[in-house]
């Protein structure tokens, strides 16, 4: 394969690189007045990068000596990442209007999406680390984007300190794997592990998985999530809860299947523990929360646990179930945060207290219905689409012989349903709180309507397509 062929295959990353550079130049020349133009450029770049995936999928990779994979798995992941990034840009203008619109926001989103693209396409530990750090550096700035807000500054600092610690843990694991296998290539590591797992390789495996667990905010590396989600601006929190989660989960899948496939017995134990611990803590810790963004942070931890049940199966069906779950999760999460954006008092200031939702069904019945749909779907209550995602991962676990894991996961999901239903109860049955200011944003209202329709029973019309694409993505790894 020629060098030009390699460049064609990495077209999505090239497009995003060019887009981000052009947006930087445009922002520098136009200043604060150029926010809309920069946003349009970034959205167009994400769209073109997504369209270019059509030509980059299939048997395009590996390229550049195995550093990068272009296959159906990376294509599926990048579609979710780019879509979530685009929604995060579209939902931002009204929130940042009071603080002054700054063109850096969409540019940082594109840089993060570029890093996440390298993460899900990585075929080598070096590519993994470069992509992860590119995404993380943009995320640190996004978390503290509202410089005049103490909570935002605190969120950015916490995220940076703990993120640097996690990166160090991951890098130490990478060095151990390189030292004991003699290679940083996923396939080379898999070949080395086929002869049996040495103690050094086992320690490297554990440290790498620990670093990745931080990025997906899985227990016991979840400590940053509630504080960062609460302190960061709401559009940024929506971004953190969607696109980076997909990228980190997809990266974890590629690492354990491609690089650590021969050591399934070892990493499977870790994934099972992390999955159950995340489900349990996410369910229990959210019960006492009074801030809607903190509650959704624990909801995110809880949902990552369910997604990891599919990965724990270690089969094609399990990986397909995990990717299907992440696709449904992204829609539910973005829809929930779009509803949170509508929570504004009469003066237009953001409100985050759950008690302020009381009586919403009387003042804004459409928003109340959307909130209820997303909460019921996140709880996994049929016939909403969130139930289908949970069914897929539990079915994959049972098919792989992990029946106790599925039983415990189902039992814990009942606990988690409590705090989702509490929000619905507050909206429909509690005494009315002061009404929110009416939302006149056609973009936000339209996105909420689309997301609510997608996770409603109408979403089952998309299940055959989702099953086909997620299945092709999973088979690409095996």
Automatic annotation (TrEMBL):
Molecular function terms, GO-annotated: NADH dehydrogenase (quinone) (non-electrogenic) activity; NADH dehydrogenase (ubiquinone) activity; quinone binding
Main enzyme class: translocase
Q: Topology in the membrane?
A: Multi-pass membrane protein
Keywords attached to this entry: Cell membrane, Membrane, NAD, Oxidoreductase, Quinone, Translocase, Transmembrane, Transmembrane helix, Transport, Ubiquinone
Gene Ontology BP, a term: ATP synthesis coupled electron transport
Q: Where is the NADH:quinone oxidoreductase/Mrp antiporter transmembrane domain positioned along the sequence?
A: 122-415
Q: What is its EC number?
A: 7.1.1.-
Q: Where is the protein situated, by its record's location annotation?
A: Cell membrane; Endomembrane system; Membrane
GO CC, one annotated term? endomembrane system
Q: Where on the tree of life does the source sit, at the highest rank?
A: Bacteria
Report the catalytic activity: a quinone + NADH + 5 H(+)(in) = a quinol + NAD(+) + 4 H(+)(out)
Chief place where the protein resides: membrane
Tell whether Endoplasmic reticulum is among the UniProt keywords: no
User: Could you list the residue ranges that cross the membrane?
Assistant: 6-28, 35-56, 76-96, 103-120, 157-182, 202-224, 269-288, 295-316, 322-341, 366-388, 400-421, 442-463
> What does the subunit comment say?
NDH-1 is composed of 14 different subunits. Subunits NuoA, H, J, K, L, M, N constitute the membrane sector of the complex.
Q: Which family does it belong to?
A: Belongs to the complex I subunit 2 family.
Q: What is this protein for, i.e. what is its function?
A: NDH-1 shuttles electrons from NADH, via FMN and iron-sulfur (Fe-S) centers, to quinones in the respiratory chain. The immediate electron acceptor for the enzyme in this species is believed to be ubiquinone. Couples the redox reaction to proton translocation (for every two electrons transferred, four hydrogen ions are translocated across the cytoplasmic membrane), and thus conserves the redox energy in a proton gradient.
Among PANTHER family, the record links this protein to:
NADH DEHYDROGENASE
User: What's the protein name?
Assistant: NADH-quinone oxidoreductase subunit N
Origin species, per record, is: Parasphingopyxis marina
């Amino acid at each position: 394969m020629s060098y030009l062929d390699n460049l064609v295959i990495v077209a999505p990353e090239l497009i995003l690189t060019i887009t981000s550079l052009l947006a930087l130049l445009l922002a520098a020349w136009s200043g604060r007045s150029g926010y809309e133009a920069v946003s349009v450029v970034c959205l167009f770049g994400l769209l073109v990068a997504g369209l270019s995936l059509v030509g980059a999928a299939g048997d395009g990779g590996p390229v550049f000596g195995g550093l990068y994979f272009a296959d159906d798995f990376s294509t599926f992941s990048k579609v979710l990442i780019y879509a979530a990034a685009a929604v995060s840009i579209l939902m931002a203008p009204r929130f940042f209007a009071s603080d002054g619109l700054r063109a850096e926001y969409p540019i940082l989103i594109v840089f993060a999406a570029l890093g996440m693209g390298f993460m899900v396409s990585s075929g080598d530990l070096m590519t993994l680390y470069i992509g992860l750090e590119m995404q993380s550096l943009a995320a640190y700035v996004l978390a503290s984007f509202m410089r005049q807000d103490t909570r935002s500054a605190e969120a950015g600092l916490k995220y940076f300190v703990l993120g640097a610690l996690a990166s160090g843990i991951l890098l130490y694991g990478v060095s151990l794997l390189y030292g004991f296998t003699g290679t940083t290539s996923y396939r080379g590591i898999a070949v080395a592990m086929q002869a049996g797992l040495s103690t050094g390789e086992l320690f490297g495996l554990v440290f790498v998985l620990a670093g990745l667990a931080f990025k997906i905010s899985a227990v016991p590396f979840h400590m940053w999530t509630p504080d960062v989600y609460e302190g960061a601006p709401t559009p940024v929190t929506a971004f953190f809860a969607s696109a980076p989660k997909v990228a980190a989960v997809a990266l974890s899948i590629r690492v354990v299947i491609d690089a650590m496939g021969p050591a399934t017995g070892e990493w499977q134990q870790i994934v099972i523990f992390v999955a159950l611990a995340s489900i349990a803590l996410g369910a229990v810790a959210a019960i006492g929360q009074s801030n809607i963004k903190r509650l959704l942070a624990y909801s995110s931890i809880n949902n990552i646990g369910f997604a990891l049940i599919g990965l724990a199966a270690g089969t094609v069906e399990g990986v397909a179930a995990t990717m299907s779950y992440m696709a449904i999760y992204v829609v539910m999460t973005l829809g929930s945060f779009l509803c949170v954006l509508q929570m504004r008092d009469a003066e237009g200031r953001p409100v985050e207290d759950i008690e302020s939702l009381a009586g919403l069904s009387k003042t804004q019945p459409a928003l109340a219905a959307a909130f209820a749909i997303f909460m019921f779907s996140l709880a996994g209550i049929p016939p909403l689409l969130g139930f289908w995602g949970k069914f897929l991962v539990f079915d994959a676990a049972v098919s792989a012989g992990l029946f106790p894991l599925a039983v415990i996961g189902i039992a814990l999901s009942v606990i988690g349903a409590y705090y989702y239903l509490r929000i619905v109860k507050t909206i429909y049955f509690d005494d009315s709180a002061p009404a929110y200011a009416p939302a006149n944003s056609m973009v936000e209202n339209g996105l909420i309507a689309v997301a609510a329709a997608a996770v409603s029973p109408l979403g089952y019309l998309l299940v055959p397509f989702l099953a086909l694409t997620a299945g092709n993505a999973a088979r690409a790894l095996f």
